[in-house]
UniProtKB/TrEMBL annotation:
Cited InterPro entries: LysR_HTH_N, LysR_subst-bd, WH-like_DNA-bd_sf, WH_DNA-bd_sf
Membrane-crossing residue ranges in chain numbering: none
Keyword annotations: DNA-binding, Transcription, Transcription regulation
SUPFAM superfamilies, alphabetized: Periplasmic binding protein-like II, Winged helix' DNA-binding domain
Annotated protein name in UniProt: LysR family transcriptional regulator
PANTHER family, per the entry: HTH-TYPE TRANSCRIPTIONAL REGULATOR (PTHR30126), TRANSCRIPTIONAL REGULATOR-RELATED (PTHR30126:SF88)
Annotated family: Belongs to the LysR transcriptional regulatory family.
All copies of domain HTH lysR-type, residue ranges: 8-65
Amino acid sequence: MVVYRPKTTLEQWRILQAVVDYGGYAQAASALNKSQSSLNHAVSKLQNMLNVQLLEVVGRKAVLTQAGEVMLRRSRDLTLNVQSLEQLAVNINQDWEPEIILCVDLAYPREALFPVLAEFLPMSRGSRIKIIDTVLTGSTEAVTSREADLVILIDTPRGYLGEALCHIEFVLVCHPDHELASLTQPLSTNTLSQYLQIVIKDTSETPDEKTGWLKSEHRWTVSQFDTAIDLLLQKVGFCWLPKHKVTDLIADKNLVHLQVEGSAFKQFTAFLVCPSPEQKGPGTALLSQLFLQHREIDLPSFDSSQNN
């Protein structure tokens, strides 16, 4: 394998940037605490090595050539990437995670997710965030496998603790022109079993059939709630969906809420779980704190004086 050996150095590119940014060799030399002759030599050597003229003197000022503008723009990306790489090394030495894996159940409202991530960004120190959508058993496995740093899921697996973030209601819906909408309400489970149900695919490779929502023998499986909604809008099937996903569609009479015997709706609680709290890094801890600050649930208050 042929190893490429760069002809230029980062220092030469930084000097070129300084000459342009400060408006000339003298000003750049003062800012960098270097001699003007050393800056002239560095830029001259850079141009000779590339066989491209980057600067030309107009009057008493060095200005970029057309080629120089292109090369300078690309050089800024180069030096910025090196700076980010060096900062990443500092973060690693300070135990700041280079990557945080966040698994989020599809039922969790994205309207609650995005503000947290937006607030985290300026404090993230360059840490990458990997967001993985999970459903049902797949959400549980994200915790038990301990491959994720944080998991938002419905209910918590045995042996793990979680912080409640919000309540999520599921409602049964179909198109207003679907036959189910014209039947006497509430509907029995036997009636529902005669119609096509749209279900969301469990992201686990070994799904637990005991989990999930009401199922019909005749069902189609999709991977996203949005796909299920698209099918419903085409008058295909019925589906249990998070209320926040269909509130506007119901209000606009594009979908209808079906009443079911013994279950007008199903309510669940979304929890934030750190699968390996003993290994929680500072980035994960900060992101977890932000989720708790943004949570949309009323926590019970305890008066310690009542125990006295």
